[in-house]
């Protein structure tokens, strides 16, 4: 497989720019030296708790915000070196699916206008008739009747809106889609529909996903590889099988263990981390996870663990990383 | 059998004009025994929160309630309004999803917990202070002596939810109603809060009615589960039976559609269609349009809850036929 997106040492800090009186808050390092590659046709999931920087990372990748430092190569070209016109054209190749697809869209526009907006922007809509035909085909592809195109967003349920958001994203035939918590606001019975749809579309069109989520069970279904983030850093990255069968980083292990399992016969042995995620304005020295880590030792406060390859295809940032087989969660069912 | 602590019978919640009511809860009936942990599960629009709010009569002004809500043998719906504050907090505590909107940002958490005690009990200030600190300790607040003087804004979401639980437990209620208490929390914090709730139950023997959309959460903490769909109770069973032998097609579909950490299926099972908006289905079974087992009868008549086994009931015509056959 060839590389579609490659990021190196990406870092983004947000300063307190509020106009409020009183002391400024210290800057937040939302993304701190993140590197990885997204392959063509692959779904790479980024998981972590709120504030871990996963959404900022997605926005950096689409060049919606500028990194402080680091490099993003998209299809072999350096995004930082591109002029604005080149960036604009590149945008056609990368699209985004949001948690609430209509959050930023006018409620007065029709579904056809919403879906066709990216095509309009890149001059791909053609004549009025062609535009309607394209929208109709897109609606069919996401499982909605083409007759819906003249309706307004408020007439649709959450699941239907997400289908429309997906139709909009695929309308310009992108190579890369960043999906930021696309199913987390949906009901359980609707979640499954959208996950299946996203998988089917990827299979037929061959684009890549960066799938940002907090729900590890959802990620297991859609991802080929999984990156786990904590306080702006990647702590573990590996294939789905590697991560879910035997996490090496104690944070990955705790996340998997804490996720409630819909099976009452497996209630035992969960790891409950103490305390809260530290504030991103005040990241602990050395390893950011050490304040909640059951394995932490003096070394962890002094020395930040580098991401190192612990087995082919898996990197982990922990001085004491070792396999933690998920024993009590058999792979039955 | 001993009398249940909470016994909801034929509860209906209506909005709009009496001539053309919009019914969001239809003949809801279930019980919660003393010390029992019951999960009330459903998707959005299932009526689960409205049912829970009805118990405390905290529903919007416009809602009309009918049926009976027996708590310790007394019908809460027949109680004069002025007697409800005595029930709320003292008899039944409540924890909501978003603690920040329920806490006063300019009062210390200690003062807010004290207020909950003051409403129902008289005691010397020093004793009250001690009780507040004990409550904070009960809900797992680190360093309670110092944190008692802090303001809600100084706490994280998980810690605020602990403060809410301390307020709810201030007068040792026999029933705690928790409406999506962990939905807004991160998974590692959710695990902490669920462990705290079970700890409270074990130490004080309070019953818990946990309202949630999350089947993982109920599987972890509940003894019995009541499943709601579009304003109806469709299944009611002990937790092991519900997860191993669900009888209602909605429960079956829901359980199959949940992604889990261990399953190896390529595709998730999906229930077709979407939840009907409240009030759009006035006749027959509300799940029939999405149901793989639907019969002609389902369009005409709402199936009654039929016993499927010990402590197991489901409302489905197809299932009822299978039971007979």
Automatic annotation (TrEMBL), chain A:
Gene3D superfamilies: P-loop containing nucleotide triphosphate hydrolases
Domain of life: Bacteria
Natural source organism: Salipiger marinus
Gene Ontology cellular-component terms listed: plasma membrane
Name the record gives this protein: Oligopeptide transport system ATP-binding protein
PROSITE patterns listed in its UniProt record: ABC_TRANSPORTER_1, ABC_TRANSPORTER_2
Domain ABC transporter: 5-256
UniProt xrefs under SUPFAM superfamilies: P-loop containing nucleoside triphosphate hydrolases (SSF52540)
Keywords of the record: ATP-binding, Nucleotide-binding, Transport
UniProtKB/TrEMBL annotation, chain B:
Signal peptide: none
Principal location: membrane
Keywords, ordered alphabetically: ATP-binding, Cell membrane, Membrane, Nucleotide-binding, Transport
InterPro entries, alphabetized: AAA+_ATPase, ABC_Ni/Peptide_Import, ABC_transporter-like_ATP-bd, Oligopep_ABC_C, P-loop_NTPase
Alphabetized Pfam families for the sequence: ABC_tran, oligo_HPY
Domain ABC transporter residue range list: 8-255
Subcellular compartments: Cell inner membrane
UniProt membrane topology term: Peripheral membrane protein
Transmembrane segments: none
Similarity comment: Belongs to the ABC transporter superfamily.
Entry protein name: Peptide/nickel transport system ATP-binding protein
Organism from which the protein derives: Salipiger marinus
């Amino acid at each position: 497989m060839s590389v579609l997106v490659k990021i190196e040492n990406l870092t983004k800090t947000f300063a307190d720019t509020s106009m409020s009186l009183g002391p400024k808050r210290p800057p937040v390092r939302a993304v701190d030296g993140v590197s990885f590659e997204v392959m063509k046709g692959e779904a790479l999931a980024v998981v972590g708790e709120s504030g871990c920087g996963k959404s900022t990372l997605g926005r950096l990748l689409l060049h919606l915000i500028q990194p402080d430092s680091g490099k993003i190569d998209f299809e072999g070209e350096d995004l930082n070196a591109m002029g604005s016109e080149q960036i604009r054209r590149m945008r056609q190749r990368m699209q985004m699916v949001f948690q609430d697809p209509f959050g930023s869209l006018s409620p007065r526009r029709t579904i056809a206008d919403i879906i066709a907006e990216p095509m309009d922007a890149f001059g791909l809509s053609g004549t009025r008739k062609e535009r309607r035909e394209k929208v109709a085909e897109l609606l069919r592809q996401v499982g909605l009747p083409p007759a819906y195109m003249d309706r307004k967003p408020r007439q649709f349920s959450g699941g239907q809106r997400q289908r429309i958001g997906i139709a909009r994203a695929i309308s310009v035939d992108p190579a890369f889609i960043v999906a930021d918590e696309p199913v987390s606001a949906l009901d359980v019975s609707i979640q499954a529909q959208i996950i299946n749809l996203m998988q089917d579309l990827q299979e037929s069109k061959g684009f890549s996903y960066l799938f940002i989520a907090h729900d590890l069970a959802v990620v297991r279904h859609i991802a080929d590889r999984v990156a786990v983030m904590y306080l702006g850093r990647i702590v573990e990255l590996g294939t789905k099988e590697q991560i879910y069968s035997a996490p090496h980083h104690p944070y990955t292990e705790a996340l998997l263990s804490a996720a409630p399992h819909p099976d009452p016969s497996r209630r035992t042995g969960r790891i409950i981390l103490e305390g809260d995620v530290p504030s991103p304005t005040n990241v602990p020295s050395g390893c950011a996870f050490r304040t909640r880590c059951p394995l932490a030792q003096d070394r962890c406060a002094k020395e930040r663990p580098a991401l190192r390859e612990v087995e082919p295809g898996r990197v982990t940032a922990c001085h004491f990383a070792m396999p933690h087989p998920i024993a009590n969660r058999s792979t039955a069912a | 059998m001993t009398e249940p602590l909470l016994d909801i019978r034929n509860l209906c919640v209506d909005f709009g004009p009496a001539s053309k009511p919009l019914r969001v809860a239809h003949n809801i009936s279930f019980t919660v025994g003393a010390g029992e942990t019951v999960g009330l599960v459903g998707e959005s629009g299932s009526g689960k929160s409205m049912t829970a709010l009805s118990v405390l009569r905290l529903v919007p002004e416009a809602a009309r309630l009918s049926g009976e809500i027996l708590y310790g043998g007394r019908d809460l719906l027949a109680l004069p309004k002025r007697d409800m504050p005595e029930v709320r907090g003292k008899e039944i505590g409540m924890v909501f999803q978003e603690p920040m909107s329920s806490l006063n940002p300019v009062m210390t958490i200690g003062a807010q917990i004290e207020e909950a005690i003051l409403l129902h009990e008289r005691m010397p200030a020093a004793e009250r202070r001690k009780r507040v600190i004990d409550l904070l300790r009960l809900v797992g607040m680190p360093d309670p002596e110092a944190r008692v003087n802090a303001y809600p804004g100084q706490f994280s979401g998980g810690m605020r939810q602990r403060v809410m639980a301390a307020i709810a437990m201030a007068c040792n209620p026999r029933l705690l109603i928790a409406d999506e208490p962990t939905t807004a929390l991160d998974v590692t914090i959710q695990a902490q809060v669920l462990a705290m709730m079970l700890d409270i139950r074990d130490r004080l023997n309070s019953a818990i009615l946990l309202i949630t959309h999350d089947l993982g959460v109920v599987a972890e903490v509940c003894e019995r589960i009541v499943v709601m769909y579009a304003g109806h109770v469709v299944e009611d069973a002990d937790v092991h039976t519900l997860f191993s032998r669900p009888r209602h097609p909605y429960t079956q579909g829901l359980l199959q559609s949940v992604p889990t950490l261990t399953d190896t299926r390529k595709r998730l099972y999906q229930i077709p269609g979407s939840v009907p908006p409240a009030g759009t289905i006035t006749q027959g079974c509300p799940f029939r349009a999405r149901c793989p087992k639907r019969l002609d009868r389902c369009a005409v008549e709402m199936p009654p809850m039929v016993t499927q086994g010990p402590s197991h009931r489901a409302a489905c015509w197809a299932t009822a036929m299978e039971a007979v056959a």
